[in-house]
Amino acid sequence: MSEVSFSEYLLIILSLVAINLFLTCVIHRVWGRKLRTKIISNGGVKISTSCGEYTLDSARNKLVYRLREQKQWSVLDMDSVVSIKACRDKSPCSLIELFITGWNIWDFAKRYRDIMHTSSICLTLVGGQSVELMKLKQIEQREWWQFQSLHDLKLSILKVLKLYQPINKVEQELIVRICYEFSACGLVIEKADAL
Q: Is the pTM here over 0.85, yes or no?
């Protein structure tokens, strides 16, 4: 039996670290950030997201949209759009923690349970109703004491490599992009504070 050299041990350790960083990157990515835009012939813009399809028709000053669960298209005046806002929520993600991120005895304590951050980017209308444009989700792993420090170090490394972004940063970038698309069609909407 041959001995394993120091360089082979180092290669194995670096491979395990790379695999661990990759899995952390996949687990902590922001889900639902798909935003595709296409300029249409009448000077409008067609926007496609994970929540539905939206057409900004600047010639008729209309917003035509269909949410994923709806079959009918809805039409509203672009003048009825007051602002764009993000509504945030968080909830426990016990099944994901059990099967993917790993469950241990410390997860009986509420402060160490993983949570799912959800952010809905919505258009606020004149009557107080809202139209959901996007729904973003991201897992936040919470670990016990020293393991949390190690986990935060991994996220810092991924941030430096531009492989990790917190959900609030992604949310703000998408709101700016959506506002730009609306302004290209002649409608300036204000950004409301996140709820």
A: no
